[in-house]
């Protein structure tokens, strides 16, 4: 998905997609589905970690082709359904985030709007793929959620953190204090693997790394 990650979960009842990447990346999603020997109509759920353009950019095209049901936290639904503009970000501390945030985040560039079928609530357990827990994690984005896939013991962290040059901050924050609280919140959980909006997944002992980084 370019510099933004999306994830497919395969289960008996169909496929679940976490995030949709930048605009124009729907072919990558369709290709991944076909590599699993699945048809496009077997994509049943599209859950967004938040409403930024690098996570919803291809969503409308994917929804048109598959009829997928979409999910997002209420605080970001208006951005997704209007296609922008997006709330501004302040770069995370450090020189590299300051440069990359300016390169990759353009809040006034619109994307194709996507309809959201179901709002997400903090603490909700979605009856999808064996159980996906919704964890509201604002800071980078007001409507951001992390998703804990219980059967796989995997956390989809969205942009609460990144793993580009090691586990660290996202490129920017709407609210740094809220972002730090969300990082500590995830550091209190137990999971084996973690996936990020940006950077490589962590396959083993991920929650230990979170605790070492942000635990109290």
In short:
The protein is an alpha/beta fold. The chain has helices at 26-35, 53-56, 59-66, 74-82, 95-104, 176-187, 206-214, and strands at 7-11, 14-18, 43-47, 69-72, 90-91, 118-119, 125-126, 132-136, 145-149, 154-156, 162-163, 167-168, 172-173, 193-195. The radius of gyration is 16 Å and the shape is globular.
Strand content: 15-25%
* Major beta sheet summary: 5 strands, mixed
Helix share of residues? Answer: 25-40%
Strand order of the largest sheet: 1-2-3-4-6
Distance between the termini: 34 Å
Shape: globular
What's the number of structural domains? 1
Q: Output mean pLDDT.
A: 95
| Number of DSSP-assigned strands | 14
Provide a count of the helices.
7
Descriptive account of the structure:
With 216 residues, the protein is α/β, with parallel strands linked by helices. It has a single domain (7-214), classed as Ribonuclease Z/Hydroxyacylglutathione hydrolase-like (Metallo-beta-lactamase, Chain A), CATH 3.60.15. The chain contains 7 helices and 14 strands. Strand 1 and strand 2 (14-18) form a beta hairpin. The longest helix is centred in the last third of the chain and has 12 residues, at 176-187.
């Amino acid at each position: 998905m370019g510099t933004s990650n999306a994830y497919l979960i395969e289960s008996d009842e169909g496929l679940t997609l976490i995030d949709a990447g930048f605009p124009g990346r729907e072919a990558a999603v369709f290709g991944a589905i076909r590599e699993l020997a699945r048809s496009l109509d077997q994509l049943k759920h599209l859950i967004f970690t938040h409403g930024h353009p690098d996570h919803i950019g291809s969503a409308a095209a994917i929804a048109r082709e598959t009829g997928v049901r979409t999910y997002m936290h209420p605080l970001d639904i208006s951005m997704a359904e209007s296609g922008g503009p997006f709330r501004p970000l302040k770069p995370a501390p450090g020189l590299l985030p300051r440069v990359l945030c300016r390169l990759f985040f353009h809040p006034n560039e619109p994307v194709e709007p996507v309809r959201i079928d179901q709002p997400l609530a903090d603490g909700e357990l979605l009856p999808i793929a064996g159980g996906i827990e919704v964890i509201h994690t604002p800071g980078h984005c007001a409507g951001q959620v992390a998703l804990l896939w219980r059967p796989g013991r995997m956390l989809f962290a969205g942009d609460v953190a990144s793993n580009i040059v090691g586990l660290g901050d996202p490129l920017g924050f709407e609210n740094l204090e809220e972002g730090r609280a969300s990082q500590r919140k995830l550091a209190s959980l137990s999971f084996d693997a973690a996936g990020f909006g940006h950077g490589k997944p962590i396959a083993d002992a991920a929650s230990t790394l979170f605790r070492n980084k942000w635990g109290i």
